[in-house]
């Protein structure tokens, strides 16, 4: 049984997307308009509804740079409470620390993480969704980079942007760099904005400790209301990040026994096998379509002992062999 997705996105972020379309002089597609008209103005937007919005946009505007353009057109003030909380911090580093804590209030579709190297600091974004992932990830990173420039009040230039997606043509790569105004690296291990360590000390133009102190208790209360998530979603999120994980490894990361994991999933009318198949099946189809990995590499990445085991599983999911699936027209 497919997990029931109880995640959500703030209405402010959904509105920011439509506002960005308007600023780019792109009409809201009819399908997207229908989706937006059904949203409850007094509630957060369910992730399933938000996903349908992204699918409608991707279908209407097959522009490989749509995510970058949308992110560039967004503003911190459109991010609601979290946007104002970040803007009022003293430094860029303090704003990033708050983003790491409060980003679920904007949307529960992904996770931010800060990774420090000897000469750089990476603000990584790892999505917990599969559909329209590249479009959505690039929108998030582009928006973060745009807001960094706005909050610091000068033409800030990041050390680079990393994208965990295949490189497009050289012409498209140049457009990425022109729009983002920074070097862009494709096929990266994780999607991220790369800063210099000294960038974190940049002061923010709207820093206001008093306003920040008033906003924080409200943000804390809202965050507490979002913390009670189903176990099946936690399992799905872990497998989306590392599809080769076994039941035992997932249970270990969740600090429970494999047997307890199975019992708790059963209580939610779910099973580890079904969740695992959904995630592995998605990546298998995606990688076979891309054609840059052979069957042995895909089998290893998905946690299968050999090509034969992968082939049997793939036939169970699709009724086709991996070879026959590759030959299908796109």
Structure, explained:
The protein folds into 2 domains: 8-224, H-NOX domain (Alpha-Beta Complex), CATH 3.90.1520; 231-327, Orthogonal Bundle (Arc Repressor Mutant, subunit A), CATH 1.10.10.60. The model has no long low-confidence stretch (mean pLDDT 90). The two termini are 28 Å apart. The protein contains 16 helices and 7 strands. Helices cover 56% and strands 8% of the residues.
CA radius of gyration is: 21 Å
Q: Give the CATH architecture of the largest domain.
A: Alpha-Beta Complex
**Per CATH, what is the topology of the largest domain?**
H-NOX domain
CATH class division of the largest domain? Alpha Beta
Task: Give me the strand/helix succession.
Answer: EHHEHHHHEEHEHEEHHHHHHHH
Summed up, the helix count is: 16
Strand order of the largest sheet: 3-4-7-5-6
- Largest β-sheet summary: 5 strands, mixed
What share of residues is helical? 55-70%
Number of domains: 2
Extract low-pLDDT stretches: none
Mean pLDDT: 90
Instruction: Give the CA-based shape.
Output: globular
| Number of β-strand runs | 7
Query: Strand pairing plus helix content: what structural class?
Result: alpha+beta
The amount of beta strand, in percent, is 5-15%
Distance between the termini: 28 Å
């Amino acid at each position: 049984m497919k997990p029931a997705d109880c995640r959500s996105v703030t209405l402010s972020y959904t509105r920011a997307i439509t506002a960005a379309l308007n600023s780019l002089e792109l009409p809201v597609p009819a399908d997207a308009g229908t989706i937006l008209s059904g949203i409850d103005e007094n509630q957060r937007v369910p992730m399933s509804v938000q996903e349908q919005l992204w699918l409608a946009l991707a279908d209407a505007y097959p522009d490989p740079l749509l995510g970058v353009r949308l992110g560039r057109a967004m503003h911190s003030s459109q991010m609601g409470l979290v946007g104002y909380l970040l803007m009022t911090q003293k430094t860029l580093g303090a704003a990033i620390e708050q983003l790491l804590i409060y980003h679920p209030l904007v949307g529960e579709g992904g996770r931010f993480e800060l990774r420090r190297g000897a000469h750089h600091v990476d603000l990584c974004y790892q999505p917990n969704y599969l559909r329209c992932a590249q479009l959505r990830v690039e929108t998030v990173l582009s928006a973060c980079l745009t807001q960094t420039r706005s909050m610091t009040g000068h033409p800030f230039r990041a050390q680079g942007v990393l994208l965990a997606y295949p490189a497009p043509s050289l012409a498209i790569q140049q457009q990425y760099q022109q729009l983002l105004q920074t070097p862009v690296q494709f096929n990266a291990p994780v999607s991220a904005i790369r800063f210099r360590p000294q960038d974190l000390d940049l002061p923010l133009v709207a820093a206001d400790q008093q306003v920040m102190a008033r906003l924080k208790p409200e943000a804390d209360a809202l965050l507490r209301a979002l913390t009670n998530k189903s176990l099946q979603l936690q399992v799905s999120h872990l497998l989306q990040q590392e599809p080769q994980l076994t039941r035992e490894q997932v249970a270990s990361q969740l600090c429970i026994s494999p047997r307890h994991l199975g019992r708790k999933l059963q209580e939610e009318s779910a099973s580890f096998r079904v969740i695992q198949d959904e995630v592995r099946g998605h990546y298998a189809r995606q990688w076979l379509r891309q054609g840059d990995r052979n069957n042995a590499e895909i089998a290893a990445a998905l946690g299968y002992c050999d090509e034969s085991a992968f082939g049997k599983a793939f036939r169970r999911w699709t009724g086709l062999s991996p070879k026959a699936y590759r030959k299908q027209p796109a």
